[in-house]
Specification:
The structure is a homodimer of 389-residue chains. Chain A is α/β, with parallel strands linked by helices and 389 residues long. The first copy, chain A, has two domains: 167 residues, Rossmann fold; 205 residues, Up-down Bundle (Dehydroquinate synthase-like, alpha domain). In chain A, helix 12 crosses helix 13. Chain A is 50% helix and 11% strand. In chain A, the strands form two sheets. In chain A, strands 2-9-6-5-3-4 form a six-stranded parallel sheet, sandwiched between helices. In chain A, strands 7-8 form a two-stranded antiparallel ribbon. At the A-B interface, strand 1, strand 2, helix 8 and helix 9 of A face strand 1, strand 2, helix 8 and helix 9 of B. Strand 2 of chain A pairs antiparallel with strand 1 of chain B.
Chain lengths: 389, 389
């Protein structure tokens, strides 16, 4: 087992009616709230009115920043920071999914950062000091409610940068808020959860028992609950499991005791959605099985890990390890198809024009994947993108 | 899935050499340290000298409180609080196992508590305000390094009270410090870990997938790693797994989404060790299989849970559910025997003289077990104690 440090001080409230604590949580930090949300779905569902009601009851002054993009843009972060200064904001309230909360993490840290927030993003984020951040989640996907990561995009440079900020102070996760999430987004969010686990599970360390159990447990849970949530969007148990799975999947906990990987599919996907603004989970669903096939072919010493994946996640069995390894990958691919996730970049209208640019940019931004679990060169990355056509 | 709140702000450093951060962690809170430890094993292992060296390097002033009992006494808590006041302590440093850290949690909260700390313990603990607490763990057992609980005893009243205080600010868990733990204590600590899981796992809620996976994963991990640690006390991987398992087992995380139980075996064991000062984990190893047999007989509707336990934890199989349920319990009992844990109270020199007193005291202190997973009356509790003879 490898060393690790755990520190997630977030106060995490889970379940139906969890929002009851919101007023007290906000009031703890002051009276001036920056309410941040996305495209307005919270107005359709009534959550917006609930939140405004709670803020009024506590006599909180609310300033709004709406229209956070699905891949949140640095321009929106700058706008939020300016509002925090001009309105003397005490606490930021994120209502939405991972994009909204990521935007808020960057606003909260950027408020104290000396310089332009894109420089902060280029420097890998900032954990020094932050405005208090409370979030109400409406999507099970990124797990940003229970970690310190945020991904910020810059449409001017076609870049998407993963950085480390501060964990939210309070996260409120009510699975009923995800009932209205459309099937396509529910599936994409679940692909994101599964990818978070795969990025940590596929490692050469096998002896970190609890991490193995958590990784396999979350994958099995998504495989069970996603189809249930799709066939009955108001299935509380299915939605609740997906929501808690998503929070833990990206918390770092499933990797404790293992050698950290470079999260290769996320690195490749950030390029894809940086260049084409596609849904993150869709990009991951397309990339992940191709990456698996590629590394299994490139380095057969990883076969035992794929065999374990096939057995413990998919319940497959057999004596031929190589066949079993391939069958596990096929099972994942079939699962993504069964929940109607796109399976090729071609379907998304993406051709091979920028594959080399993307691979080069990945190298420039992240340092590349040549020291990963299975090392990947620029050519390898282009080959994986190509296999996604 | 049931609602839950998670909040463990502890900064948790795990692995070989994790103590490297101790000096900085202590200095964060001030310069005057109360070093608390037990019977002196840390002097034999050299850990004491390491810690004094670290404190000297940081120019910290150290006051010592040694001799914390295996079931920490309120008298020691009072002594610690007095020292914190007289020596103007800034931060408490616990070095040892669960007893030492529990004692420190009560000292840290008792420092600010208005009144006698036994009143605080009788009131269920106190979370209002605490002196900063840093711990260095030398035992994998209670998980006190990653939760807010502490158990304090009072030899004057033969009582042992579980209370909620504040989580440690920093926990340092280096598995190499557990290499020197004797076989009997290693086994008792592991029985404690397993009991923590059983107290949460045996519930009527089955749909909290991640909690099920974590509970079963930790049990399988202890079953695998405890024999390895016993046959080679310096097996890092085995010791590391037991240590991380212990931290998560008692954190509350394995119960998220489930209906809270009353931790019946712990309630019964606290009476046992309150009356007889036996090792907590030994009491649990004797009680747990007897409790299982009793509730399975009393209420056959719990059979499916025992079947799941038999299959997913012990890898047993078969078509006869009742037989399978019993075989799972036998497997647990056999496992405890195989690691040389006492299997009867008689072996410990305990007779039936106080069983009724203990059951009555349990009812007085905790409110009883009549609303538990399977309700237990005073007579039931006496019957379970009697089955342990």
């Amino acid at each position: 087992m490898e060393n690790f440090t755990h520190c997630i001080p977030t106060e995490y409230h889970f379940g139906k009616g969890a929002i009851d604590c919101l007023g007290d949580c906000l009031a703890r930090y002051g009276s001036r709230v920056l309410l941040v949300y996305g495209g307005g779905s919270i107005k359709r569902t009534g959550l917006y009115d609930t939140i405004i009601g709670i803020c009024n009851d506590k006599a909180l002054t609310v300033t709004e920043l709406s229209g956070v993009e699905p891949n949140p843009q640095i321009a929106t972060v700058r706008k939020g920071i300016a509002l925090c200064h001009s309105e003397s904001i005490d606490v930021i309230l994120s209502v939405g999914g991972g994009s909204t909360i990521d935007c808020c993490k960057a606003i909260a840290a950027g408020y104290y950062y000396k310089g332009d927030p894109w420089d902060m993003a280029l420097a890998g984020g900032c954990q020094d000091r932050s405005l208090p951040l409370v979030d109400v989640m409406t999507l099970a996907a990124t797990g940003s409610e229970f970690d310190a990561d945020a991904v910020i995009s810059n449409s001017m440079t076609s870049q998407k940068l993963d950085g480390t900020y501060r964990c939210p102070d309070v996260s409120i996760c009510d699975p009923t808020y995800t009932f209205s999430v459309p099937a396509s987004q529910t599936a994409a969010g679940s692909a994101d959860i599964m990818s978070h686990i795969c990025e940590q599970y596929f490692s050469r360390v096998f002896d970190s028992d609890l991490s193995e159990a958590i990784g396999e447990g979350i994958l099995r849970s998504v495989i069970k609950n996603l189809p249930q949530a799709l066939s009955d969007p108001s299935d509380y148990s299915a939605r609740a499991n997906l929501m808690w799975d998503s929070s833990i999947a990206c918390s770092g906990i499933p990797a404790y005791g293992k050698i950290p990987t470079l999260w290769p599919c996320h690195a490749m996907e950030h390029e894809l959605s940086g260049f084409y603004n596609i849904t993150h989970g869709v990009g991951l669903a397309i990339l992940t099985p191709r990456w698996m096939r590629f590394i299994l072919k490139k380095d057969t010493s990883v076969t035992p890990r794929f065999v374990k994946f096939a057995r413990n996640v998919w319940g497959l069995d057999g004596n031929d390890d190589e066949a079993l390894a391939r069958e596990g990958i096929e099972a994942l691919e079939d699962f993504f198809s069964s929940v109607n996730l796109p399976s090729t970049l071609t379907e998304l209208g993406i051709g091979n024009e920028h594959f080399l640019d993307m691979a080069n940019d990945l190298k420039e931004v992240t340092g590349g994947l040549e020291n990963d679990y299975v090392p990947l060169t620029i050519d390898d990355i282009v080959a994986i993108y190509t296999a996604c056509l």
